[in-house]
Design brief:
With 90 residues, this protein is an all-alpha fold. The protein has a domain of 40 residues. 44% of the residues lie in helices and 0% in strands. The radius of gyration is 25 Å and the shape is elongated. The N and C termini lie far apart (65 Å).
Length: 90
């Protein structure tokens, strides 16, 4: 792996890089590497990594009683009927 030094980064560019890196929760170094890879067509194609946000509005909105009710329903669905899943031959 090689290292390079980039000289001449002025304050506005430095601030823009840091702000974008913060927004995307990655380091400035990783941001620059990703931008360079993308620019030169070397970026990895993301497969099976789609993030969905359609349920974000529900996160943290259940009361303790609602949570217990939902957990009870989930646990009831996970129960197995031993008669249906018995490995004993008739």
């Amino acid at each position: 792996m090689k290292n390079i030094t980039i000289r001449g980064i002025d304050d506005p560019l430095d601030q823009a890089l840091k702000a974008l890196a913060d927004r995307e929760a990655r380091s400035v170094n990783q941001l620059v590497l990703d931008v360079l890879r993308e620019r030169f067509g070397l970026a990895k194609v993301a497969r099976h990594s789609t993030r969905h946000h359609d349920l974000d509005g529900l996160f943290g909105t259940w009361s303790a009683e609602e949570y217990q009710g939902i957990q009870g329903a989930v646990e009831a669905q996970r129960r197995l009927d031993p008669e249906l899943w018995s490995c004993d031959a008739p």
